[in-house]
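User: Predict the full complex structure for these chains.
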Amino acid sequence: MAPSNLFYTKDHEWAEINGDTAIIGITDYAQHSLGEITFVELPAAQKKLNVHDALAVVESSKAASDVYSPLAGEVVEVNEELSSQPELINQDCYKAGWLCKLKISSPDTKHLMNAAQYEEYLKTI
Amino acid sequence: MSFIANTPEQQKQMLSEIGLSMDGLFADVPKEFLQKDFNLPSAMSEFDVRNRLAELAGKNHIDLTCFLGGGFYDHFIPAAVYAIIGRSEFYTAYTPYQPELSQGTLQAIFEYQSMICRLTDMEASNASLYDGGTALYEAMMMALRITNRNKILIDDSVNPIYRVMIHSYTKNLSIDLEETKNDQGLANRKALLEKLDENTAAIIVQNPNFFGCVDDFADLADAAHKKGALLIVSCYPISLGILKTPGAMGADIVTGEGQSLGLAMSFGGPYLGFMATKKEYVRKMPGRIVGRTKDNQGRTGFVLTLQAREQHIRRDKATSNICSNEALCALTALVYSSLLGKEGLKQTAQLCADKASYALQRLTAVKNVRTRFQAKWFFNEFVVELPANAAEVAGKLIEKGFAAGFPLSRYYEGMENSLLIAVTEKRTKQQIGMLAEALEAVL
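Assistant: Here is the predicted structure of the two-chain assembly.
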């Protein structure tokens, strides 16, 4: 089940918003579809992003896929653990497998889904 | 459209099927682009074609004693090279589309990559690129990707043929490509360091450089790294038998032309571009990479690896658009270096250097011929300053049976009388003496 405190996109990213920062990651559906993740290309600190800008690249033995930013903002921190342990995304995609932290420029979440909506969306694909 | 293999009858049938006339089918193409006459000569019989080609081929000078270099060198190629690469299992230029079926081909490429890594002292090599020039261009693009910067510095002592290629590739890209002018035949350190800044992705240099001068770029590597830039070194593989390796200098990406490793000097190729880099940049490296692994029963096998970055998967976001390699040429280089071995390569390089030293001594003993640059070290190539136009002198020497060298005026201003001369292990003391005598005679 998708955690209820997070927001979701149709591209299977999640965002956990705490005040003016947000933690970004990919969902269980995404990690499962990609298979064993072998490499993560993280964004540079201070990189400025708009909604749906390419934020990171997650590479598995099957494909290298872009992760799009669910929110607009600036990268303030990346999950350095992933460079030596990319499999954290497979093991614990909503906690230890987070990708980066953004300082968000707008608290607007109208374009995102809540957990219930995302679960419904998953049934349609 | 006579080159399309269908009959007028079939064309009529197809047109009636879609309900169009021939004019109607091409109605969207503007009239001026509908070429009616390609001005081609009329067809010839096989016999006439053979005669015509033989006549054209007869215009080539094929028996000249070669002192011509400039990036391509007349080295000895053992007959065993052709015997091995000519085997039908290998004699295809293409990696098969289901590559893992061809374990032999993949193993050969893996061994080739290992050889390139040992030669250049780098950690990872790709399966090869088209030639030295495209490899250098790909290295430049790779540096831009790694650093996310926009400026490239290249010294004009880098092979001008490569620089022309880089200029034409980048003409319509927004890359700030700055060239520095060599300083007495060596890379212009002062100018390069002055231009090096926080927006510089890489410095590109060559060793030995186009004038044959040998350098150590360790200081440039340090300076580049301090600014977050990379050092790209293009090199001549045979020279690595005795020279300090680009890896030992701290280079981040190493490329070069692999022709000298057992490939014939055919006009236009096919040649071999090689590329090697540090492990940390391997995901940014273009082209195919073969890796060694184990299957589910623990048996060693070979696979194409890191493919997820390439265009058949990643489309427009691919690391590069290189999706092929020069498999047969890479195999040739591998077979050649295996036959020579570590000591053989060292001896070949030493012979080249020794014979070049002798040739320089012998040629500059000719009246009014002197060395162009005072650089301390050169490998197997050097520039002489003649008392006359170098292109004209080289023309006269062809009549005497010598491809005497490369006239530098073609690419460098103010070098009308400069001739670039290359000496390989194949040249004999007698041939060098005869060149000196012929030169004396035509001056």
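The mean pLDDT of chain A is 93.
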